[in-house]
Specification:
Blueprint: H1 2-24, E1 27-28, E2 33-39, E3 47-56, E4 60-63, E5 69-70, H2 78-87, E6 90-94, E7 99-103, E8 109-113, E9 116-121, E10 124-133, E11 142-147, E12 149-151, E13 158-159, E14 161-165
Parallel strand pairs: 1-13
Antiparallel strand pairs: 2-3, 3-10, 4-9, 4-12, 5-9, 6-11, 7-10, 8-9, 11-14
């Protein structure tokens, strides 16, 4: 009889563990967002524009940059400020020593969740990145895109990821 209880207990624990593992499987942002980049020619002053395009899967969104947010209760918790700064969409260009850049983020759409409002990106987002290279610098650069995808109801499990768009052209 004790052996039957141990078997039953082991079976129940195995099922609970399996359910917990399935429940905890996180969706990666790069499975919901596809990134691409294209580059203009470098002009005589070392200036160039890289256009980053993010295609966001239907039913998912990204936090805009900046994330304009207001809470229905009017309170602003510093943890939320930090959260939005960390999870807004961001574009980085590397190596920093070879270039200065300015990403011109489009305005996000307002998403309402109860009494709270957030600015988000949905569908296709185009981010022009204005580069200025050091004199004589024409080597390839790396474009990194930091996104946090969440489902449109702010329920989706999604793991913080840094996606990368690589230009096949010399950027």
């Amino acid at each position: 009889m004790a052996r039957a209880w141990y078997c039953l207990l082991a079976f129940a624990l195995a099922n609970l563990l399996h359910a917990a593992i399935v429940e905890r499987q996180l969706v990666r942002s790069d499975s919901k967002v596809k990134a691409s980049a294209s580059a203009s020619k470098i002009d005589g002053d070392g200036k160039q524009i890289v256009t980053v395009t993010l295609d966001i899967q239907k039913g998912w969104l990204l936090y805009a940059n900046p994330v304009k947010f207001t809470f229905g209760d009017g309170k602003m918790d510093s943890e939320f400020v930090t959260f939005f700064k960390m999870n807004r969409t961001q574009v980085f260009v590397e190596p920093k020593e070879k270039v200065t850049y300015l990403a011109r983020y489009p305005s996000g759409k307002t998403k309402v969740d109860g009494k709270d409002r957030f600015s988000v990106y949905e569908g296709r987002v185009v981010i022009p990145v204005h580069l200025e290279r050091m004199p004589g610098e024409a080597s390839p650069l790396r474009i990194k895109i930091h996104v946090q995808a969440v489902d449109v109801d702010f329920r989706g499990p999604c793991q913080h990821q840094i996606g990368r768009a690589s230009c096949r052209e010399r950027v």
